Amino acid sequence: QAQLVESGGGLVQPGGSLKLSCTASGFPFRDYLMSWYRQAPGKERELVGYITQTVSTSYAGSVKGRFTISRDNAKNTVYLQMNSLKPEDTAVYYCNALLIQEYWGQGTQVTVSS
Fold it and tell me: Beta-carbon neighbour count of residue 90 at 10 Å?
């Protein structure tokens, strides 16, 4: 059974950093496009960025230059390094895997507040 499990969320002050992890199981991780999404209270879920099977990356304009996505196929894990965090980055962050089928993680809360 395919599964994505996120971890690493929490409370951080503005300007701080967090690194989220998403570990996959039950499907061939290396073959999948991996993405991070987020959903803030009262807002629609939005794409944060993605990393392709060939390790190309793309980011939303709001996070470009501050967030970095990487993957470790040996560990079946994708990462989201978040630097220079702002209060508007507060959201539940979700991991997504896409090829022919699509899988979602359960989400991890990130709160940026002083």
Answer: 17
**Bridge partner residues of 23 (DSSP):** 5, 77
- C-alpha distances out from residue 14 to 20, 24, 55, 82, 110, Å: 17, 30, 29, 11, 12
Q: What is the pLDDT of residues 18-70, one digit of tens each?
A: 999 999 999 999 999 999 999 999 999 999 999 999 999 999 999 999 999 99
Retrieve residue 38's tokens: 């987020």
- Cα–Cα distance measured from residue 100 to residue 92, given in angstroms and rounded to the nearest whole number: 25
Q: What is the C-alpha separation between 18 and 114, in angstroms, rounded?
A: 15
Angstrom distance (rounded) from CA 60 to CA 46: 9
